[in-house]
């Protein structure tokens, strides 16, 4: 009898198993044909040959139509394209007509087809329409069982319609959740790719911005010293070559994803850059008091701060002070721009690195004039 709880439990377990296997989606529709066994038995035992043939034909067409309609609806759903409403309504009407043609031979067991109609309605129609269709089919079953002579109501058909609708609703929600999860994963993947592109762009900007700035300053200095002090000019040209090779190595390391800055190394590079720009450098000579976990961030501060001093400040002196929790880069130049925004690409990248490390960034005018960049790590 349709509506047996054990049957629904078995079918539900089978559906859950099938749903996890790609390429077996058609079984989601076909497995429900198990419930047509009762009308099939009654039709085969029917005495009238013509009605028996009509019933068998209608049952076979019903099964084929149901499989075709359900498969088509699932395909459209997976493609995120809704079938036209007239076509969906046609699906429902055709199944109802084929179920009605089974009545002469199958009797009240033909009401089993209402379960399939409700299942398809939940699948292809909006939830509100599907529920309304289920209520209508439930009313048809109850009225028919009470008004047609020889038909008896034991509650199984109504239970079947309700349970069938709930089962397909659960499957529909599972499909929707799966699709939403796939979309969310795709969005996360795209965001991760974009974030990695931004990170790589920041690194290249910081690497090449600093290195090319120093190379430019040293090349200009070498040009000025070419006639007055050829030996000093040759030394500066050698430094330019060394810096160019170091920048190329940094780019390669960044591409490989293994580059980490050294705070001590950045201080040495900063001193050389400042001297080449004829800016007096007041820099620390040791970094022992800075914890290991803060050194890479502080190294980025030195690189960005000194690059800005050399490029934009017009300063005569640059001072760097650091301790275990804070680093500060100051100069005596023209100070921040009137807007005071501090939103250059390098500073944006530095703020993002500081945020990840739980540090705060201060950008503004230094005491007594000039520019000040400070980063403090929360203790």
From TrEMBL:
Residues 196-260 form the Signal transduction histidine kinase subgroup 3 dimerisation and phosphoacceptor domain. The chain crosses the membrane at residues 23-40, 52-73, 85-103, 115-137, 157-175. The keyword 4Fe-4S does not apply. It comes from the Bacteria. InterPro entries: HATPase_C_sf, HATPase_dom, Sensor_HK_TwoCompSys, Sig_transdc_His_kin_sub3_dim/P. It holds the Pfam family HATPase_c. Residues 329-348 are annotated as: Disordered. Keywords: Kinase, Membrane, Transferase, Transmembrane, Transmembrane helix, Two-component regulatory system. GO terms for cellular component: membrane. Residues 299-376 form the Histidine kinase/HSP90-like ATPase domain. One of its GO terms (molecular function) is phosphorelay sensor kinase activity. This is Two-component system sensor histidine kinase DesK. It comes from Kribbella voronezhensis.
